[in-house]
Amino acid sequence: MIARQSKLFIPTLREAPADADAVSHKLLVRGGYIRQVSAGVWTFLPLGWRVHQKVVQIIREEMDAIGGQEMLMPVLTPFELWQQSGRDYIPELFRLEDRNGREYVLPMTHEETVTFHAREISSYRQLPQLLYHFSIKERDEPRSRGGLLRLREFIMKDAYSFDRDESGLDVAFRKNEGAYHRMFRRAGIEYSAVQAESGMMGGKESLDFLAPSGSGENTLVTCENGDYAADLEVAGGVPRAPEFPDSLAAPKEVATPGVTTIETLAEMLGIDDAATSKAMPVTTADGRLVLGLVRGDDRLSEPKMLAVLESDYRPSTDEEIRAAFGAGGGSLGPVGADIEVIADETLRDGQYVAGANRDGWHLLGVEAGRDYSPRFADIREARDGDRCPVCGGALRFQTSIEVGHIFKFGSRYSEPLDATFVDEDGTEKSLIGGSYGVGPARVMAAAVEQSHDENGIVWPASIAPYDAHVLALHGGSDQVLEEADRVALALSEAALDVLLDDRDERPGEKFADADLIGAPLRVIVGKKTLEDGAVDVRRRDGSDEGRVAVSEVLKWAKNA
Questions:
Q1: CB neighbourhood size of 496 (10 A)
Q2: Rounded to an integer, what distance in angstroms lies between the CA atom of residue 151 and that of residue 406?
Q3: Distance between CA 249 and CA 375 in Å, rounded?
C-alpha cells in the first residue's frame, strides 16, 4: 500500500505540550499520533490508530494460537452484577442511571460480565474455555497523566479462562503466560515478567509484565545478579541491620514533647531511626481498626497491607485513633493496644522505640512477643539500599510501564454470580477462572519510551505505522515525483507499507517530520536521482545509511 502524505491527516508539531513530561507523551503528540480531548481521554489520529491496530493484531494472533475465542462484551453493564461480585465500592468505577432509574456502570474490566455469560456452561464436557475481547474500558482515574500511560478511557484486551479445577487453571495460566512473552517480543519491547499483586481484581497467583521506561506508574525491582524480579507492590527486600541501643528488661517511658515524626524522635534520643517503629492505624471496609507496624525508616506498602487484610482499607480518622488509643497519631504504639497488630517481619528481633499511646511520650526497649503479640507479615515497601532476598545482591529500582497483567481469580466471581457446572462425578461445582489483560496503548507508549532519539520516534519494525518512508525532494519537479512514485510502487509491490511524502514542502520540513514519524526505513529521492539513478537510504535507528541505485532499493530494504 502507498499512502500519499499530501492527502493524510498527520498534524505534526515542532513543540511538545507544556504539560508533557513523559517522552512518549511528547513524541506521540508531536508526531501527529494522538490528541487530547480532556484529562485522560485521547483520540488516536490515523497514524496512531495504525500503530495501535498493529499491536492489536499481534495480540490477536497470539491469543488465537492458544485457543482463544474472540468476542465483544458491552461497555454499558448492569450495576447489579458488580453488586453481586462485591466490587461496587471501587471509587474509580463510573456509575450512571438511565431515564428509568436503572443503574449501570462503565467497567474498567469485564470479570463480572464474562462470568454472567459463563453461567451457560453446564457440564465439565464444555471445559476448558478461553474467551477474549478488545473493548473500551472506563476508569474514573484521579491522576490522569503521561499521555497514554494513565487514562480514564482506554482499550484493553482482556481474556478469561474457565476450568473445572485448579490444575486446569494452571494449564491455562501457563499458556497465556507463554503467549504474553511471544506478543511482547514480537512488539519489539524490552520487558520483565514479575511477581505482582492482583489488587481490586482479587485472586491468587499474579504476574505483571513491566517495560522499563523513563516514565510510568510501576517500579520494576531486580537483583544485580539477575536472580530476582518483582513489581515494587510485592517486592521483598532485606534492609540494613539497625544499630540498637542497650537492651532493657522491660519497656521504659521517655518524655518526647512535641515529637511527631521519626526523624525528630531519633534525633532527640540520639538513636538510629531504624531502631524505631512507625505505627499506621487503618480502618477496613467493615469498620475494623487494625494497627500496621513497620520500622521507623520504612514505608507501609499499601498493596501488601491490602493482601494481608484481604479487605479494602483507609487511614483511620483522628476520632477513630483517639477512641482506640487515647492518644494522637504521633504517639501510637503496639503495647497495650486493644486491637489487632500486624507487624512487619523486620520487627521480629530486637528492641525498638515505639509510641506509648500517651501524647508526648514514647517507650524504649519494646520487644515483639514479650511486650505485644502481633501477626507478622511482609508489609514494608522495598527501597534503595535493600539487598536481594534470594542471594543478598543489591536491588535495582526502575520506573516501568505495566503493559500486561495476568492472575488467577479461582472462584472469586463464579461463586457470587452462581456460575456452576456439573462435574464428571455428578456434583455441582463453581467454575475456576483466570484473567489476562494487556493494553495496546501502553505497548505503544513503552515502545516510544524505549526507542527514540532527540529528533523523534524510532519504531520497532513490527508495529511501525509504515515500513518505509519515501521522501520526494521534488521542488516542483514532476520528474522527481514520478521517480519517487516508481520507487514507492516497487517497495509496495514487495509487500511493504509505504508512506510517500509528496508534499510541496522544504527538505528540512520533510526530514523533521520523517524523524518524528519514525518509520524504520527511509528513501530520499531528489533531483540528483535523475542524474545518477541513485537514492539516499537510511535506517531510522542510524545503523545503516548510504546511496544505492534505484534498481537496488528493494534489495537494500529487504536486507536492512
A1: 20
A2: 20
A3: 23
Q: What is the pLDDT of residues 217-245, one digit of tens each?
A: 899 999 999 999 999 999 999 999 999 99
What is the tens place of the pLDDT at every residue in 465-482?
Answer: 999 999 999 999 999 999
Selection from 408, 413, 432 nearest residue 421 by Cα: 432
**What are φ and ψ of residue 26, in 5° steps?**
-60, -50
d(Cα 281, Cα 299) in Å, to the nearest integer? 13
Instruction: Report the alpha-carbon distance of residue 411 to residue 183 in Å, rounded.
Output: 28
pLDDT in tens, 97-124: 999 999 999 999 999 999 999 999 999 9
Query: Rounded to whole angstroms, how far apart are CA atoms 124 and 116?
Result: 17
Give CA–CA dist 474/178, Å, rounded: 49
pTM for the whole structure? 0.89
Nearest to 131 by CA among 163, 88, 85: 163
The three-class DSSP label of residue 320 is helix
**Beta-ladder partners of 363:** 253, 354
Q: Give the pLDDT confidence score for residue 199 in this predicted structure.
A: 56
Q: How many CB atoms lie within 10 A of CB 313?
A: 19
* Residue carrying C-alpha cell 474490566: 109
310, 199 contact by CB (below 8 A): no
Beta carbons of 543 and 480 less than 8 angstroms apart: no
Nearest to residue 408, comparing CAs of 230, 229, 175, 242? Answer: 175
Q: For residue 533, give the amino acid letter.
A: G
Q: Report how far residue 466's alpha carbon sits from residue 47's, in angstroms, rounded to the nearest whole number.
A: 9
Chain centre distance of CA 432: 25
**Residue 385 has which C-alpha cell?**
539500599
Considering the chain, what is the average pLDDT of its residues?
95
How many Cα atoms sit within 13 Å of 323 on the Cβ side?
A: 9
Residues 6 or more apart whose CB falls under 8 angstroms from that of 502 comprise 4, 5, 6, 472, 474, 481, 484
Residue 201 has pLDDT above 70, yes or no: no
Positive or negative, the Cα torsion across 495, 496, 497, 499? Answer: negative
The label of the residue with cell 520533510 reads 510
Q: Which three cell numbers stand for residue 477?
A: 519537479
Nearest by Cα to 242 from 385, 388, 355: 385
**2: helix, strand or coil:** strand
Q: Retrieve residue 545's grid coordinates.
A: 545509511
CB 305: neighbour CB atoms within 10 A?
A: 20
Q: Say how many CA atoms lie within 13 Å of 127 toward its Cβ.
A: 30
C-alpha cell of 395?
Answer: 536491588
